[in-house]
User: Fold these one by one.
Assistant:
Number 1:
Amino acid sequence: MTVEKKNVERPSAAFHAADCPTWEIPDPDPALILASFDDEAVAAYALRIRPVYERFKRIIGQVSGLLILAQTAPAQADRDQPMVKSAREQLAEAAEKRRDSRAPLAARRHADAMARIEAQLEAVLTTLDRRVDLVTPESTDLEQAMRRLFTAHGLLLAVSDDRADMTPVDFSHACCSCGVSENDPGTTTLGSCAPTT
Amino acid sequence: MANYSIHVLEYAAVPEYHVSGVIYGYHNQGYRKLPYAYALIRSKDHVALVDVGYNHKDYGKHLADKFGVRNWHSPHDVLSEVGLTPEDVDTVFVTHAHFDHFGSVEDFPNATFYIQERELAKWIWAMSLPDRMRWMMVAVDPGDILRGVDLARQGRLVTVDGDMQDVIPGVDLHAAHDSHTFGSMWVTVRNDGTTPSQDTWVLAGDLIYVYENIEGDGGAVGVDKVYTPTGLATGSQTNLVLATEEIMKQVDYDKRRVIPVHEERLKDDFPSRNTSADLRISEICVADGAESQVT
């Protein structure tokens, strides 16, 4: 079974069918099949992998921010080097958790995508460890680092699923977090000021 | 002499937003409409925006389903109501990096974006912290930061360290560190081009959501009005109050000269109209020789 693209505004599935073409490319293709969260093994995997997802998401942001500062602000070794070191340590920790996540068959493609995100981030961080040109707009090093980050981010969007609390942005305390849900107008969301009933 | 026309352009809204989210301490006071909007600053030489809205492509449906954000329209649709296209925009001031202010950067191919260096540097730091400190990176989309890399490579992202005068003639940036966010800023338009100006407007970003942030009820402390900061401060409410005082000084304490884009009651103070898509356009001022966009 496939879902028509036109009916889906953004990918919302965490676990897609083994033959889903999404996994072969980093494009967040919405033609997806959901694995059921009724499957206990899938739900348990989701719990184990969520912190990894969260960390990968943040490393994408950290490295992107470093690349911006490299191009727009004076270099500051005391600012930049600890950030790179920290990102590398976090990636190593997340990689270990990912390897221990024990994906069931239904989540195999999800796990494969997570591994691919990790590989892309590992490659970018290796680049940052070397003395390469990340400043000149025409730099092939910069272009490659960006391509890897966009690939990682595309995969991140593809594996996002709000049912498993894997969302690209944490809206829980954001400017919109107190709105009444369109789908359930009788309730508010779980923002900082939601009723504590 | 007015060099710039200024308009507030609504692009979406949360119809029922918890009041305590926008005014610190206003608990159990119900809901009100919270418009999402950007501000347009336009002269014969420049088209500038203050913020650019959120990335509807990536999570618009999620925002609608989970948080009740409604009636989103693209920058193309919104700007067409005032006779512009996104391609006409040459300057964007990003008051802070929250998803609803820094999201739609790809829609403005000819614009140069300005953001505080501290805003980026501190978000990077926040993203490096353990999960238990995740609150500090709330509402920031790593995808927005990633798209910022591409802007920087194209030479269209400028990181600003503190205040900056005459970014375009008569338009200044002012930093408000550790307030709503780590590196928020507000935009001041000296519309007569002079310093000091007799015709100053402040586009406040999220430093001031609504009028109560400037004129809150001071009964509890025995005064008529007090600054009552917004509900969300990654920095501190103290710094929000201090920034509000600086803003008010700039406009000689004339509340009407401070423009909070999330304030629905702008329509009561300024000529406004609703488009066929039910999006409000508020006309803050009109440049000499320019036409009204609301009458």
Note: Chain B has one domain: 5-285.
Number 2:
Amino acid sequence: MRKIFIEELILAAKKNKKLILVVNDLGYSVVEKFAKMFPKQFYNAGVAEQNMMGIASGMALEGYHVFVYSIGNFPTFRCAEQIRNDVDYHNLPVTIVNVGAGLSYGNLGYTHHSLQDYGLMRLFPNMLIASPSDEMETKACMKYIIKNPQPSYLRLSKGKNTSLHKKIPNLKPGKWLILTKGKNKKAFLTTGNVANLAKKLLLKKKFSQYSIFSLPIWGMKYKEQQKNQLNRWDSILVLEDHLEDGGFGSWIKESVNDKNVKTKITSKNISKKVISKVGSEKYLLDNYYLKFFGK
Amino acid sequence: MNKSQKNTIKNLRTNILKLSHKAKSSHIGGCLSIVEILSVLFNNILKGFSSRKKTFKDTFILSKGHACLALYCMLYEKKILSKKILFSYGENNSLLMSHASHHVPGVKFSTGSLGHGLPVAIGSALVAKNEKKNRKVYVLISDGELNEGTTWESLMFAAHHKIDNLCVIIDYNKLQSLTFVSNTIKLEPLTKKIKSFGCEVKNINGHNITQLKRALIFKNKKKPRVVIANTIKGKGISFMENNIAWHYKSPNFLELSKALKEVNDA
């Protein structure tokens, strides 16, 4: 996903001199090509995330689209107030890119896990959350964000992803994309690369008839669109690589109330027991997520 | 000081007093300390005023957003803000909140949480420098903001990138919210400290018009400029000067009359 991100960014920067990439001394083996091709459009702000987000806002205030690239909590929690007051309140075109979705950096430990980031980003009224499931969705999200500069959060997983879409999907914020058509009125609703897990879950007998949907672009602005999409289903099981509180599942549940939706909505989240546990992403997901789905 | 400058300063102090009395709002001390700085900036320094857009080509950011009342009064003097809007300060549903808001005509950026204005000013200055636009960026910060880590992160960044179209003005009134700066987090030796961060520093009397004019004019030094403006919190009103109570207090009717008399007699 990182590769796709930087390729798309390079394509866009070729056409737009007012596109800037800022990093906080991170991005080894990812950002170099961009930095070399567009030296005047690349800044390393050093290990100073609050300043980085403020500078990005100042550039955006002058009509630039600024991409801030980093990992996990550094471009989010570390500079949360700069995102709130400077980026979101002023509705500035700053795109925050987090390459450590969920447990992507499993072995690096809790400081590098993104398990609460939706909770933060969901709080900002202008913020668009883009959480693509595969490379095609990553391309689609980048194209959408570049065409529609605004406060945005692009959450990418570190590793390679299997392709879920055959071609670049047509994205509309708040709109679900079908990944697998099932046979009953039950469906998985996913955001981010956890859609890959949904595919695996279809192999379990109890889920074999399920459909799978991905919702790559969401946020406070798109809550109202959820009711009609939910209403078509008897049961929706939300999957996400995030803690339950403040997550995508909570967002879906908050978007409706018992009176206007009869759909049974449940969500499966990473267990909070994962905190302080170390291991590969696969190991952590197997032990602190997938095992709760039963046989 | 010419007559018009003198009038601006008098009008600013008068309206700051009247409006903080009316609104029962706080931060009057930190508004009175920046009156001369604002007057010189808006009357002599900021270039490229467009009467149609009601903005300057140069950028000004008030990072000490709690002193927005002084800025609103200044914008009124420049006819950027109407009397109707200015005198709605403190009323319910007014456009003017008690911290600087970008929804107000003439206000470039909303501030209120300290340490935000300087990084934003740097981003704005950096792109202007790259575009080779002759646009200068001025940012007015409080001495309390020197407690914030972002201030020092930003100064290092600005010096590293030789952002010489940036001028940081520190309202060094030496009083914070609870007590004196020197009793809170020691800043001295401030000039030396900021110079060592790679900035050009001017240490001046922030109420002296001539010194302000001289310090705020750029000479290209390939360094960001920092003006330490030594000021007095509550300046111009004897019983408010250097008195911590006037960080939060607003004048009652008697205090207002007494203060207005002092401004008139000055």
Note: DSSP finds eleven helices and five strands in chain B.
Number 3:
Amino acid sequence: MTGQIILQLIVSGLALGFIYALVAIEYTLIFNSTGLLNFSHDKFIMFGAYIFAAQFLLNMGVSPAIGIIATLATMFIFGVLVATGIFNPLRNMASPLFAVIGTVFLGRILTEITRLIWGATPFTVPGFLKGVVRIGNVVITKANITVIIVSAIIVVLLQIFFNKTKTGKAMRCVQQNKTAATLMGINVAKNINFTIALSAVICAAIGIMVIPLFTVDLTIANMIGLKGFAAGVVGGFGYLPGAIVGGIAIGILENLSTLVIPTLYKDCIAFVLLIAILLIKPSGLLGHKK
Amino acid sequence: MKKKRIVAVILSLTMMLSGAMATGVYADELDGEIKIGLSCAITGNFPLAGQRTKEGVDLALEEINANGGVLGKKLVYTVEDDQNTQTTAVNVVTKILNEDVCAVIGPHTSGNAAATSELYKNAQIPFLTGGSSPKLAEMDNPYFFRIRPSDTINGQVAAKYAVETLEAKKIGISYNNNDFGTGGRDVVIEALEEAGIDYVAVGHNAGDKDLTGQIMQLMSENVDCIISWTDDAEVVLTARQLYELGMDVPVIASAGIVMDQVLNLLEPEYVEGWYAVTDFVSTNDDEVVKGFVDNFNDKYGYNPELYASSYYSATYVLADAIERAGSTDPEAIREALTKTSELKLPEGLYTCDESGDMVHGCVVAEIKDKVPTMIDYVTVE
């Protein structure tokens, strides 16, 4: 019985861990390309979930497959708009604080816009990614399996993109030195537009995948937003493989913690781990240095 | 543009005139008005509750005034939007109290009721609220009246039902770590200890998104019944994960689960066979409830839920008290409210006790294919 419980906790933790990892990746991208933090990233996830579920599926009645493509496309355009409106104009101001505060307010605006358009009542998409798979005594939901597979695909695609394509290499140049990148003929502003759009697309993917796990409401991504941030720091800030290790570590550890500490304090694990890593090994678990 | 404005003026004049004429008709039949206050959340984070509250009160007033009013006068209200926040509730109650009202209905929720309690006490005007926290009764405010069962009652009924009817030997309590959840947990634990039944309490926080740890703990403790005391979002999560992890034991849930806005978030199999301890279900066969549900449905086109039923009943409780007081003096109305006895309304049987609690029983409902059906009405002494 105990063995089964531990196994179940690890499996559920793994699935949540991949969500944290994706969140960490999504804002790491923006941090790497602009040196700024997108404090509205959890609202991007929420917005993506609403566009998919409320707009495309429930209001317009399109099939999930078309809905997913349309949502990702919409969020790509949305990302470009945010980059043009906030990140590019504000990133060169006297302090990075301007852009950061800009994103905080963008988050508020997004929440209120969503409430005005689609209403404040929580809802769900009946039947979407519903069901469980049983392997022996261990249960895993289809939604969780989807999360794990999609996350793995996204990570692999990103690695290929950054190492093999011209745009990806250009993005890494911008990350290392913006002035030098400009001198090499890279259009930094355009590059940042693309990065933020990419990040918004990943946010939308997260938003869509968590719909069957969390009810769609205005606070759908608050918790995963915070823990995803912790995951990035724990794994090694600004380093993609680190984000995955950090996310999985937090997901599994916080679930296993319920065996020894009261369940109420489960959420503390991520943040205790965050502080411990900052004190002991600030470069993160994977110890990546730029 | 100009044309539109003229049309608008004409339309609004027509509305004012017809309104005046309507009052005129009433004035012929009923001599004068009695004004009460209503504070509810029309906007904010809980607008559905305010809308249903107002609909319940509107229906009750319509019926009361059609049947000769109160003391031969027309019962009317002045309504303010408290946005379900404590600061706004304090502001709007202050405003209502300055409007020459003889009693007030609302605000809803325990936090808002506690915040405005002193205002009512100082103004010496009675108020009727649906806040269900056991702590409200301890405020020692003679002007406080509760028109819904308090959680003390729901919690005891849940424990009693688990032990006596479901014959549970070891009970798992899954609670939300907020005022509502811990209040319910304490009542359930007290009742279980009294009955000498083994239990294990496992908590979660508001906003939690994964309860695997909590459910595995309940599973490893081999509980044979679960009492779940939590809010809407978390009860949805509890139901889904209990089902997915294959934990097949009877569950008794706190009041919110029977509302459509919660059931709509669930697949039918998640809550099949669940029990709920709640104020009101619209499928009740009782004649008073049936009449209310039919009238409500005729007027609005959908079934009432617990807010509509609570505040519909509250309006009748107040009308009854004013009638018995024989005057609109707030003190006399308070006196009459304390003597409310055996008044049968959709929300239950109203009898006032010394702490201002008026409903002393609650409904046990069973959910079948997402429809909650009443199986018992349990009264607690």
Note: Residues 17-28 of chain B have pLDDT under 50 and may be disordered.
Number 4:
Amino acid sequence: MMESLLLLAIAAYSVSIAATLIRALLGPTLGDRVLAIDAATYMTAVLFTLFSIYFREPKLATAAVSLALWVYLLDVYVAKYLEKGDLGA
Amino acid sequence: MLELALFVLRALGYALILLGAFASLAAAAGFHRFKDFYLRLHATTVSAVWGCVYPLVGTSLVALSSGELGESKWIVAGASFVAAILIFILAPTGTHALARGVHRSRTAHVVPFVEDALDRDLCGEGYGSG
């Protein structure tokens, strides 16, 4: 019974990631695209840990940490690019 | 007694995971229903805290209470909990920095543009209609 709940959550997260990435492709400005990529990456981090429970594979769960750090880096770099015009090293 | 405690932990974890699944579906709908950048900030924060932090804590609880993972349940639980704490701290910070950059570079166009207390020049004619 619990396994089917896990499958339901995996399906919901997959649909959400697909719908959010459509907004990332359509998004009229750069800010909209980055926001959509943010949300899709957060959902992907959760999806990886759900996969690691479903497939009983602990190595998959450690990817969530690096995804969280990567998307923060993307936020800060895009904010700096928009504000100053370059990345400023 | 221990079995009951493990079952409660597992049920709590699955409840958090299902809450996060619903919240992420709502955030994905919000990305297509909201009209401009500043409204879509709300969808992003919903998907960050409700759709990511709570289900990561939930997967941590599920991994701790499951006997099928063996000794490696500590790896899954620890990685999920660390990712939850990191996202809880870094997601609002990054979104705030992005909103500040977009506001200063004037790239987001808001259609009914009434008042901006930070930058009065944005309220000029012609800007809001574009």
Note: Chain A has a mean pLDDT of 90.
